Amino acid sequence: MISAIKKRVINSFLVFIGEKKVVEDAPKKVGIVDRKQFFTHNEQSFIDTISMEFIFTEFGKNRVNAGGTEFNNEERIDPTFTSLKKYFPKAKYTVFTDFDLKIKGVNIMKVDSPVVDPENPRFGYRTGNYFKFKGLLESEADFKCALDSDMQILSSKIIALIYMTQKFGFCVPHNVRQLLKRDMEISLDSQLITDESQGLGYSYNQSPMTLWKGDKRGGIYYKACKEIMKNEPSRGSLVMWKAAWKTGVYPYVLPKQWCVCSGDEGVGDEVILHIGHNSVANYYNIK
């Protein structure tokens, strides 16, 4: 104990007089620890009594990931699809797309986009969000969830998302930028915020977004999101804010553990990782 303290004192003195440099520890990479692999009997019984649908949107034949991680183009909706199916093998899986796509066990909906300004470089992202909103509204399942294809589900704690959606009606994830004004200042496809909030409201993310069957508030909210994205397209977070401001209806916001993005690594109690962000994939040692 004394020798350890003595060593630290000597090292500190050597740094102070310039004889030694401070060496910072590199951020530790951690593996995925799935603490809860299986559902309890009661959880499984609940799952067996409801229908559920997971909705993906994939536009453009070449898979593009803005977060930096490279994915196999042939496994188009993985890792999300495979990691979800592990827990919900009987759920319905649907992909909205604009090209011929075949994935075993997945319902493919080939569609044309009604979103205006098709020449805009963000047209594909806008269209993807439009069909997320549309898919949530039109799904006949009890629990419906729209999410990106570059997510990794870590454990059966994912069931909490179903319970929270049943309780609150509809949920969306937190945005790491939090403040809408800040989000618009540093993001692509942003616009000026013209309402009285001055951008000082909360910014939402788009994966995962959920809706419980028959929830009227959620229906009002997502319908407004869909119409605004169709006619006044922009970044998804701004469209979602506009819908909340217009209707006075807003979702339950999931904490960062449900969409661990760049900057949130190591938060603890992680449920879903956004491994499309290269820093997240590296931190959790996902190859």
What structural class do the secondary elements suggest? alpha/beta
Summarize model confidence as the mean pLDDT: 89
Name the overall outline: globular
CATH class label: Alpha Beta
Total number of domains? 1
Radius of gyration: 22 Å
Full CATH superfamily name: Spore Coat Polysaccharide Biosynthesis Protein SpsA, Chain A
Strand count: 10
Relative strand content: 15-25%
- What is the N-to-C succession of helices and strands? HHEHEEHEEHEHEEHHEEH
Query: Total number of helical segments?
Result: 9
* Cα end-to-end separation: 40 Å
Q: pLDDT under 50 segments (min length 5)?
A: 21-28
Largest sheet: 8 strands, mixed
> How helix-rich are the residues, as a percent range?
25-40%
Per CATH, which architecture? Alpha-Beta Complex
CATH fold title: Spore Coat Polysaccharide Biosynthesis Protein SpsA, Chain A
What does this protein look like?
- With 287 residues, the chain is α/β, with parallel strands linked by helices.
- The protein has one domain (37-254): Alpha-Beta Complex (Spore Coat Polysaccharide Biosynthesis Protein SpsA, Chain A), CATH 3.90.550.10.
- Helices cover 34% and strands 16% of the residues.
- It has nine helices and ten strands.
- β1, α3 and β2 (92-97) form a beta-alpha-beta unit.
- The protein is globular and about 50 Å long.
- 37% of the residues are buried.
- Mean pLDDT is 89; it is low at 21-28.
